Please model this.
Amino acid sequence: MVSEFDRARVVMLRGLGYSQKEISEKTGLSQSAISYILSEIKKRALEEGDEATFVAIMSSGYGPLIVRAMQMLFKDKLR
Model:
């Protein structure tokens, strides 16, 4: 099973122009897994809309990391 973080990373790398082979090398996932992830994401985007799908994937994959980073960076100002 692919984690939400890995799914978000695949989307990010694909958006940056990496090929499926390059994404596979960077993530350690098989190229067939990358292909499957991308086809599932495209299917979801066609059903739910591009923006909604992108935001959902990125927030579930990177959201917790972003929140932690913001808390660390602004710990004195968030009180």
User: Anything to note?
Assistant: The CA atoms of residues 10 and 23 lie 7 Å apart. The chain has a mean pLDDT of 86. The chain is about 80% helix and 0% strand.
